[in-house]
Amino acid sequence: MTKQNDIKHIVYLGLLGAFCLTPLSVSEAYIGPGAGFAFVSTFFVFLATFLIAMLTLLFWPIRFIYRLITGKLRAKVSEIDRLIIVGFDGMEPSLARKWIAEGKLPNLASLADKGTFTPLRTTFPAISPVAWSTFSTGVNPGKHNIYDFLSRNPLTYLPDLSSARIGVSTRSIKLGKYQIPIGKPDIRLLRKSKPFWKILGERGLFSHILRVPITFPPEKFNGVSLSAMCVPDLLGSQGTFTFYSSEPDRKHRTGGMQVSVEVNNGRVQTHLIGPTNSLLVEPKPMEIPFSVELDAAGQSALVQLPDKKVTLKLGEYSDWINVTFRPLLWIKVHGECRFLLKEVRPHFKLYVTPINIDPERPALPISHPFIYAPYLSKMQGAYATLGLAEDTWALNENIIDDADFLEQCYRYHDEREKMFFNALERTRQGVCACVFDTTDRVQHMFFRYLDPDHPALRGQDRTAYQDVVEKLYQHCDDLVGRVMAQLTEKDVLLIMSDHGFRSFARGINLNTWLHQNGYLSLKNGDRGSGEWFENVDWSKTSAYNLGLGGIYLNVAGRENHGIVTREQVPVLKAELIAKLNGLIDTDTGAVSIERVYDTAVIYKGPYLHNAPDLIIGYGNGYRASWDGVTGIVGEKVFMDNTRKWSGDHCVDPEMVPGVIFSSRKIDKKDPSIADIAPTALSLFHVPIPAYMDGQPLFNSGTGMPSNQASEQAEKSERACIEVT
């Protein structure tokens, strides 16, 4: 596992005095940073769940009567029975339009003919956690508090995961070599404002919310949910693979661990690396020993784990394999992973996916209610729980190849289809929403095949995978057709994406630009720094870049070593905007930054103080460089992107709107992702909170006018409360 001892983002979770902690590098995640967590022992989780279930049964008659009455009253004022939302993360409107025109997406074409197909304005920046948070809440980032995958700690200038925080218990009992925490730590979702399904639930409407990003940890509401983006793996990272190899190689593996092994008489003896056991006074990672016996023909292998044997075929993924770690004799922590035998000769090579939280016996809450994740597992079998399950880093690092990655993506997509159609079948009234993120992951990794000049494919054959994205859109179109077949006259179907896509061919290191232009200083006159601002002289630094699109000013009284006064802030912002707007790539002559946005202008809300001071709208083909994202100050501002991660959406948001297809004609011009939440409320004639920024997509339908519906809904609510 990558170790950066000076910079570790660690978050914790404990319950009733038993938990284990995983410290992980900030470089182990979707774009590099990771987030540790400490998991709850399964025994205590199920004990707590059992007690909650007993209390629920005791109050069930009252709740049943209340929901029965509210449901019937709501049905009388609602103009629809079901709102079905299918999210295809990152679906690009220009590609959808092209393939519709070519007759390759017949179901989406039919939906567009009967209803509406139009671009959907995204958020600033056009980043998934930001956009999906706006989708859920109907508000801009200044009101929901999510601005990137990362937020910066103003005391240390280091990154935190933006969406969740899990606090450690401050008390513990020492028992020999063990140190047992006591007390209940705090686990919090950092996204603010209410999601629309919670508001609907308060009015008696039930929702199925599946894999919508930024829903971890899960919130309580009238419905069921399965969390998505930012659910960690069992190690606490956003996805850490393991690669076993007998080939000498000391290359640093971003997003993964490499374990050197030896082959002796056709046998490999090694171990599976698990989470750190912080119940020990001197914490260390837990391990599960296993052996691999290679067949003489070199086409298969037998994996022997302590409690099971698994036969692997060369080049084929195993099914999900359950693994159990024991921090104490009576505590079990359950995970699951897949094995892929990559090579037997001349070198042994074995890839193991990140160890997912076992959905049948979750080590921490990943669903609401807690039992929903095990229910899905019992019903359909094991499934991926990691928020970013498709292993983009393993492909980036050439541990797996394009074919391996695609198979992994489609396996996870199929798992999600099963749970979605199960939920759709059980939705009689209310919302059924599910986000499929295969579109995002595949476009990130295969957009190079759509760009004839992409640096990642120079001199290489591009014919083998040039239709991968097209085939994926057709796969999504087939799913849409199966949903449309189940629609009734009182259903509304929305197909949408949070943003579009562009090629990512060139990177910009803004920290290098800031250094070269006198805004960021290094100690001892150095020309460069290591990761996470190593050797930066904060006493002489006025601005720095953190994350995919934000510049922070080093403000006095806000940052720990701030030097920019409040009076200087608007002057410095204007100066940076003037210099960065239209920034030309000196190597190519292309515009690398279209526009820089002042967040004090584009955001409104109580959490504006947590936002970056400026948002960078990169030009077409550009994005923050890989080293720039991790806080490195290098020698070059501009550089080619030669990685397989070749497509992105972290550009000027005006360039990458999402899509929206609707089974009903949309009345609102220039719709925005912020409009989905108020639309959901208005369709069920639930009053729209005044703080929401979005507006309904549809004018008042066949039901009563919205103001009359609101009055009726409030009367119904009061009547139900009086009855119960």
Explain what this protein looks like in three dimensions:
A hairpin with a 3-residue loop joins strand 31 and strand 32 (550-553). The model is unreliable at 1-45 and 701-724 (pLDDT under 50). The protein has 17 helices and 38 strands. It is globular, with a radius of gyration of 26 Å. The strands form 11 sheets. It has an 8-stranded mixed sheet, with helices on both faces. The protein has a 5-stranded antiparallel sheet with strand order 17-18-19-20-21, with no helix packed on it. A 4-stranded mixed sheet has the order 16-15-25-24, with no helix packed on it. Helices cover 27% and strands 25% of the residues. The chain is of the alpha+beta class. Among the domains are: 64-146 and 191-211 and 412-501 and 663-724, Alkaline Phosphatase, subunit A, CATH 3.40.720.10; 505-655, no CATH class.
Proportion in helices: 25-40%
- Which CATH class of the domain at 64-146 and 191-211 and 412-501 and 663-724 applies here? Alpha Beta
- Largest sheet data: 8 strands, mixed
Molecular shape: globular
Compile the SSE list and pairings.
Blueprint: E1 8-9, E2 19-21, E3 24-25, E4 38-40, H1 42-77, E5 82-88, H2 93-101, H3 106-114, E6 116-120, H4 128-137, H5 141-144, E7 150-152, E8 159-161, E9 164-166, E10 171-175, E11 178-182, E12 187-189, H6 196-202, E13 207-210, E14 223-226, E15 241-245, E16 256-260, E17 263-264, E18 267-277, E19 284-294, E20 300-305, E21 308-313, E22 321-328, E23 331-337, E24 339-343, E25 349-352, E26 356-357, E27 367-368, H7 372-380, H8 392-396, H9 402-426, E28 430-436, H10 438-446, H11 468-484, E29 491-496, E30 502-508, H12 510-516, E31 543-546, E32 550-553, H13 569-580, E33 593-598, H14 599-602, E34 614-618, E35 621-624, H15 626-629, E36 638-640, E37 647-648, E38 658-662, H16 676-683, H17 706-723
Parallel strand pairs: 5-28, 5-29, 13-14, 13-28, 15-16, 30-35
Antiparallel strand pairs: 1-3, 2-4, 6-38, 7-8, 9-12, 10-11, 14-27, 15-25, 17-18, 18-19, 19-20, 20-21, 22-23, 23-26, 24-25, 29-38, 30-36, 30-37, 31-32, 32-34, 33-34
Helix pairs in contact: 1-17, 3-11, 6-16, 10-11
